[in-house]
Amino acid sequence: DAGVTQSPTHLIKTRGQHVTLRCSPISGHKSVSWYQQVLGQGPQFIFQYYEKEERGRGNFPDRFSARQFPNYSSELNVNALLLGDSALYLCASSRGTEAYNEQFFGPGTRLTVL
Amino acid sequence: GDSVTQMEGPVTLSEEAFLTINCTYTATGYPSLFWYVQYPGEGLQLLLKATKADDKGSNKGFEATYRKETTSFHLEKGSVQVSDSAVYFCALLNQAGTALIFGKGTTLSVSS
Question: Which B positions 48-107 lie with beta carbon below 8 A of chain A?
């Protein structure tokens, strides 16, 4: 079975631009979470979606938004990019939202903002 | 708020040495605890977990015991291999069950 897939792998943008990152969960998984990993730091939680509804939001500005589609894939959108948004963006999927459901991570999208 | 503190690296060891990476947490209640590993060029992988006090998680020779008295979840391995070289992250699941809270990561480098 395919794991969590993310696209694109790498992305270079300039300040002020907008970016859309995509994630496809493992087949049968209904929950998708997004994390930001700045170089040298641990991942920080951005959003969790389950059955197309937002279930959790981390401490990120409103420039960050996301959605989940009927096929459970997800998009993360970031507006008005800042240099500090440069990071590895990780998507994780799980069967549900209960604590015992393992989160499986994708390889990430490396975003560079110039 | 919830937080995880783990020892800073890098940790440099010779093959077959004993490994300990310390991890302590601050959280409401008794959260599930995890160790994730990130090999060079790869995504995060769950290494082991423990969901309640005194539980011991184990996998691939690694172990960690959930100690509520000391709010700790230290990672240990009796004999490391070169292939264990990676970044290790300690994490907890928040009370709402919506987010993993990660430590900053510890880089392990094992030489032969």
Answer: 49, 51, 89, 91, 93-94, 96-105
